[in-house]
Amino acid sequence: SIRNATAAYAYNMMTYYANNQTSTPAEKIGNLPAPYYWWEAGAMWGGLVDYWAYTKDSSYVNTTLQALVANFGPNADLMVPAHRGDEGNDDQAFWAIALMSAVEYGFPSPPQSQPQYLNVAKAAFDSMAARWDLTSCNGGLKWQIFPENAYGYNYKNSISNGGLFALAARLARYTGNQTYVDWAEKTWDWCERIGLISSMYEIFDGTDDNQNCTQIDHLQWTYGVGIFLHGAATLYNYTNGSSLWQKRTSGLLDRSAVFFSPYPNATDVMYEAACETVGTCDTDQQSFKAYLGRFLAKTAVLAPYTAASIKTLLTKSAAAAATSCSGGKDGVTCGTKWYTGAWDSTSGVGQQLSALEVTQALLVANAGAPETQANVHLAQPAVTTTISLPARSITAELQTSNA
């Protein structure tokens, strides 16, 4: 039944994609139509790589492979499309993260005459690390890559730096190269020092480098805590269960509680706390829950002591999402609000991807542990403890986090 649901969600999502026709310009292949930006296309293909790994359904393998290869930039560097639009470091990170999933799960590769996933992911990391900006705030990545993108160029946000952190962690685990570990630690330490990671493991949105990062935007988003959580769990696994990365993994998982249980009758159901209940989520934000669902599932595999609690969150959220995916002519169009018990009349790539990710996450064990470069699975750390999310007041936490 889970496979049937994910197949329906994926099929509906792919109705939004039309850029694989013979008349499509080369630079448009793999991209979604307006109003979707380049990053969300990369995120969607990453979700479909996982879909294949978890369900063994090969329906979208050729399309996904074509999309990934089409977005390989010059010199096998996954930079940005030729049109150089509003893409930023976070956009590049989402494409590179999709490639790492392809590497870790053995997704069908391009011909050897073309750049390979791992090399492109490494090149993407190198280009991001080269943009580490010491001209303000003593480091950090800017949101935007190009100065002409004034909106966001002077903003150092958690998702860009979280993307660098998570990509470094995954490359470290896969390759065993200490340089990636060093970069992951460097990025975490900077985020913590600036205040993007709080002492309670809250992940705040970003900070203005025109003010030398002295002021923090305290909005929290699902994908922010999700990307740091997966990176921390990856390093916990790579270090064979170090106490430092266990503490950080546990802290982030605990703080993710702010994105569950919006109402007393919706216990453990995921929602986007900053915008969803008031109906202000934009097109990008409609997809953010997808990545928390994705990264929770991967965390459960890499840090097994979290699995029981994560399974509860994913199961409750997937069941609620199913009630939302009941709209449209096909009867499987997904909405935004999973806690209403019905379709809320919204639709889009983000809604479909979010439902797909949180549902297919229940099948994550089918893919096994992500592989390493030696083509063997790392030994799983011993289950030394369990995490249970404490009773909490979501309202109080939101008031605190938005102060």
UniProtKB/TrEMBL annotation:
GO molecular function: mannan endo-1,6-alpha-mannosidase activity
First-listed, main subcellular location of the protein, grouped into a coarse class: membrane
KW Signal (keyword) present: yes
InterPro entries, A to Z: 6-hairpin_glycosidase_sf (IPR008928), Glyco_hydro_76 (IPR005198), Mannan-1_6-alpha_mannosidase (IPR014480)
GO annotation, biological process: carbohydrate catabolic process; fungal-type cell wall biogenesis
Keywords: Glycoprotein, Glycosidase, Hydrolase, Membrane, Signal
EC class: hydrolase
Organism placement in taxonomy: Eukaryota, Fungi, Dikarya, Ascomycota, Pezizomycotina
Family, per entry: Belongs to the glycosyl hydrolase 76 family.
GO cellular component, one term: endomembrane system
Enzyme Commission number(s) from the entry: 3.2.1.101
Alphabetical list of Pfam families matching this protein: Glyco_hydro_76
The keyword Membrane belongs to this UniProt entry's keyword annotation: yes
Subcellular location per the Swiss-Prot or TrEMBL entry: Endomembrane system
Record's protein name: mannan endo-1,6-alpha-mannosidase
Catalytic reaction equation(s): Random hydrolysis of (1->6)-alpha-D-mannosidic linkages in unbranched (1->6)-mannans
Organism encoding this protein: Glonium stellatum
Gene3D superfamilies to which the protein is assigned, alphabetical: 1.50.10.20
